[in-house]
Every structure is written in structure tokens, then in C-alpha cells.
Amino acid sequence: MRAKKKTTAAFTVRPMKKADLKSVGPLAAQLVHLHHHWDAKRFFVPDDPSGGYQWWFGSQLSKKKVLLLVAEAEGEIAGYLYAAEEGRDWNMLLDACGAVHDVFVAPAHRRKGIARALMQAALAHFDARGVKQVVLSTSTKNAEGRALFESLGFRATMLEMTRDG
Question: Which residues contact 155 (CB under 8 A, 6 or more apart)?
Fold first, then answer.
């Protein structure tokens, strides 16, 4: 079952389409640059992150266990979410689960409930598929994101630590 289209007065959340990739790629590039800004030693910026994400998301669109959503507002793609069902991971001691890999909203569209709506659509999608647990990672510097995730029932379970040589 794929996520259904959800419309509010200000925006619509729907499955990503191939035609959306040119708009989503630059948003993903903004997320790359934001992570790099938060910690340039931990997060690298690849050559052409926009094009790279257009390619990557395009390669994921037809996969049954991948969820790609966009939010449309004011005639443009305002945000996106990338998630997937993951198998058991012995290394992480993590059972099969849903994993939210990216959720990003363009700065001009923030504080309007778009990230929450994208997350709620993903959680409803995983619930409908019988996925019992959903995990995500977020930067320690992402206070707004952490507050959103906690308000949706997520709890901190791990803290990545990095040592630079």
C-alpha cells in the first residue's frame, strides 16, 4: 500500500513522481549543505549533490519497500521525505523496521506543519504495512527536528560519536 495524497488548506503531501526529481534534488542538496554546516568534519559535500540525489531518488521510485513523499505548497515542492523498510541488522542489533532517512522542508515553507505532515504520512504508511518500529537519525544540532520527532513518539536510543584523526 502506497501513501495516499493528503491535502490541507496550505499544502498537499503525496507520493513523489519522476517529474518531481528536478525540484527535490536541490532540496536534498540543501540538506547535505545543512549537515556539512553543522559539522564539516563529519559530513562531506559530494560533487553535484542535487544531481546525485535526483539520480538516487529516481533509482528508488519503483522499489516497493521505499517511500518517497513530497509536499506541494504554493505551486512548488516545499519538502520531501525518504524512508524505507529495512531488514534485520545484526550489526546494529536492530530488528526489521521502517527507517526515515531524510525529511526536509525548504526554509521558506517551514513552521507550517509540513515536516509533521510528511512524518505522519510516513508513520501511517508503515502502520498500514504492519511495520512495528520506525527509526531515524538526526543531528545533535537539530533541535527543531528532535522536538518534532519526540512529539511524534520517537525517543533517543543511540548517539553517534566521531573521532577525527
Answer: none
User: C-alpha cell of 150?
Assistant: 519526540
Model pLDDT for residues 96-148, shown as the tens digit of each residue? 999 999 999 999 999 999 999 999 999 999 999 999 999 999 999 999 999 99
User: Which pTM was predicted?
Assistant: 0.92
> Where in the chain does DSSP place strands (E)?
6-7, 11-15, 66-73, 76-86, 97-105, 134-136
User: Could you give the CA distance from residue 71 to residue 74 in angstroms, rounded to a whole number?
Assistant: 10
Give the cell for residue 24: 527535490
Q: Is the dihedral of CA 98, 99, 105, 107 positive or negative?
A: positive
Give, in degrees to the nearest 5, the angle at Cα 133 between 5 and 97: 85
For residue 81, give the nearest of 34, 56, 117 by alpha carbon: 117
